[in-house]
């Protein structure tokens, strides 16, 4: 008789099913949902500032130095002249990017500090000032990052041309290396910024080609007529 009161095969004596709900499974599902929600709520616009500075610096270094070297190579076949022009462009461009970024970010820093002071005086609240100052942009960090990014891009065409003696092959290799690097930079920017990959790569590549072509053509024209 005692066996009649026991549950057999998940069926109670009143012919009702007992359904066991795994608690741990529900927690796992909730964790998965919360992780997906956190990933979907990532604000990729927060990456815009540092991503813009890094990609802009690298692209500028790559295109500027490559265009300078190709422009000089249009009228001078000497490899030393071509490399010297590229190195000068690297140093000048890195310094220019660093100073420009420092001035720009420092101006933004001053504006935000003044805004914090106005809000503090209006609200009579001094507690949040220190935490708000920690979130402000760092001009020195931005300057160093911009100069390094420019140098990374600028060194690529220099390395591509450094060990090639034949002038035509050297020019072709520089153009090919720069084109490949432009595609890589465009792809990295699209991946980090979650933008269309193909559109970003094509836009960066065409822009670089146009800069090199214009520099080559104008330098060739002026060099052959004036020199």
UniProtKB/TrEMBL annotation:
<feature type="transmembrane region" description="Helical">
    <location>
        <begin position="140"/>
        <end position="164"/>
    </location>
</feature>
<keyword id="KW-0472">Membrane</keyword>
<feature type="transmembrane region" description="Helical">
    <location>
        <begin position="50"/>
        <end position="72"/>
    </location>
</feature>
<comment type="similarity">
    <text>Belongs to the CCC1 family.</text>
</comment>
<keyword id="KW-0926">Vacuole</keyword>
<keyword id="KW-1133">Transmembrane helix</keyword>
<keyword id="KW-0410">Iron transport</keyword>
<feature type="transmembrane region" description="Helical">
    <location>
        <begin position="79"/>
        <end position="99"/>
    </location>
</feature>
<dbReference type="Pfam" id="PF01988">
    <property type="entry name" value="VIT1"/>
</dbReference>
<dbReference type="GO" id="GO:0005381">
    <property type="term" value="F:iron ion transmembrane transporter activity"/>
</dbReference>
<dbReference type="GO" id="GO:0005384">
    <property type="term" value="F:manganese ion transmembrane transporter activity"/>
</dbReference>
<feature type="transmembrane region" description="Helical">
    <location>
        <begin position="204"/>
        <end position="223"/>
    </location>
</feature>
<dbReference type="GO" id="GO:0005774">
    <property type="term" value="C:vacuolar membrane"/>
</dbReference>
<dbReference type="GO" id="GO:0140315">
    <property type="term" value="F:iron ion sequestering activity"/>
</dbReference>
<keyword id="KW-0408">Iron</keyword>
<keyword id="KW-0406">Ion transport</keyword>
<dbReference type="InterPro" id="IPR008217">
    <property type="entry name" value="Ccc1_fam"/>
</dbReference>
<feature type="transmembrane region" description="Helical">
    <location>
        <begin position="171"/>
        <end position="192"/>
    </location>
</feature>
<comment type="function">
    <text>Vacuolar Fe(2+) uptake transporter.</text>
</comment>
<protein>
    <recommendedName>
        <fullName>Vacuolar iron transporter</fullName>
    </recommendedName>
</protein>
<keyword id="KW-0813">Transport</keyword>
<keyword id="KW-0812">Transmembrane</keyword>
<dbReference type="GO" id="GO:0030026">
    <property type="term" value="P:intracellular manganese ion homeostasis"/>
</dbReference>
């Amino acid at each position: 008789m005692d066996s009649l009161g026991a549950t057999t095969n998940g069926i109670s004596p009143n012919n009702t099913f007992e359904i066991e709900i795994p608690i741990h499974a529900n927690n796992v599902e909730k964790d998965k949902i919360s992780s997906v929600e956190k990933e979907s709520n990532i604000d990729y616009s927060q990456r815009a500032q540092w991503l813009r500075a890094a990609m802009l610096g690298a692209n500028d270094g790559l295109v500027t130095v490559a265009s300078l070297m190709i422009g000089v190579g249009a009228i001078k076949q000497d490899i030393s002249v071509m490399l010297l022009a590229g190195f000068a462009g690297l140093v000048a461009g890195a310094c220019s990017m660093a100073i420009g970024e420092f001035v720009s970010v420092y101006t933004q820093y001053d504006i935000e500090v003044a805004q914090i002071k106005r809000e503090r005086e209006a609200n009579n609240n001094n507690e949040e000032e220190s935490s708000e100052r920690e979130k402000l942009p760092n001009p020195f960090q931005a300057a160093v990052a911009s100069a390094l990014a420019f140098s990374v891009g600028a060194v690529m065409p220099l390395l591509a041309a450094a060990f090639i003696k034949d002038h035509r092959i050297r020019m072709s290799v520089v153009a090919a290396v720069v084109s490949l690097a432009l595609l890589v930079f465009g792809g990295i920017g699209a991946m980090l910024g979650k933008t269309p990959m193909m559109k970003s790569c094509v836009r960066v590549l065409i822009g670089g080609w146009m800069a090199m072509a214009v520099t080559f053509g104008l330098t060739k024209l002026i060099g052959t007529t004036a020199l």
